Amino acid sequence: MGGARYVGWVAAGLVLAAGACYCFYRLTRGRRRGGPGLRLRLSPSAEDLISDSYDDILNAEQLQKLLYLLESTEDPVIIERALVTLGNNAAFSVNQVMIRELGGIPIIGSKINNPNQSIKEKALNALNNLSVNVENQIKIKVQVLKLLLNLSENPAMTDGLLGAKVDSSFLSLYDGHVAKEILLRVLTLLQNISTCLEKDGHLVIQPTFTEGSLFYLLYGEECVQKIRALVYHHDADVKEKATMIPKF
Questions:
Q1: Which residues contact 55 (CB under 8 A, 6 or more apart)?
Q2: Which of helix, strand or coil describes residue 199?
Q3: pLDDT value for 3
Q4: What is the DSSP annotation of 162-196?
Q5: In the predicted model, is pLDDT for residue 1 greater than 70?
Q6: 34-38, 124-128, 203-207, 230-234: lowest mean pLDDT where?
Q7: Pair 133, 97: CB distance under 8 Å
Q8: Where are the domains of the chain?
Q9: Which of 48, 54, 83, 173 is most deeply packed, by most CB within 10 A?
C-alpha cells in the first residue's frame, strides 16, 4: 500500500470510522472563459476564493489568505468551503509544497477534531491529497497520531476508537524500524487504550467489536508479537515504553 493511500486509510479509519477518503480532485481544470466583454479580475479576497464561482488554481498569496481564514473563523460553512478549496488545490504538486511551507498541514489537521462530520471529511480529503508529496507524509502521520493520542486519553472516546474499521497495515507502525517519535506515539496510544480497558492486567469489560476493528488489531496475536519484540528495541525510551504496556 502506497504512503499516501496508507495515510488516508489510517486517518479515515481511526478518526471517522469511515470506509475511505474522497477521491482526488481531477488533475486538470479549464480556466473559465467569458465573452468579449469579460472584465479583468481584481485581486480576490479570502471569501471570494471559497465561492462556488471561483475555480482558478491558487497562488502562494491566495493560499496564505485561505489558511488564515480557516484558522481564524468559527463559521462551519466557511470552514467547510475553505477545506474544499484547499483540498482541490492540494491535488496539484506545486500547491502541495506551498501549503506545507505556509504551515498549512497542522491548520488543516486540526479540523479533523471538529464535531461536524462533513468538516472532518473535508479535512481528511485535503490531507489525503497533500500526502501525495513524500515530504508531507511524515508531517501528516505525526499530525494524525497526535490527534489519536488526545482522543485515547479520554475514556469516553475508547469505544469509538476501538470500534473503528482500520486497515491491517496500521500495525506496521509498530515495526522496530519505524522512526522513534512515531513508535513512542503509537505505543502511548496502545498504553492509553489498555489503561481504559484493563485493570490488573485483565479486561474489565467484554467488548463486542467486530472483526476488522482497531480492537481486533491491537489485541490480536500479531500486535502482541510486535510489542514483545519492541521490549528488546535498541532505543531505551522505546524499550521502556513497550515494557510499560499491560500484558494482554
A1: 29, 31, 32
A2: strand
A3: 40
A4: HTSB--GGGGGGGSTTS-HHHHHHHHHHHHHHHHH
A5: no
A6: 34-38
A7: yes
A8: 1-22+41-136, 153-248
A9: 83
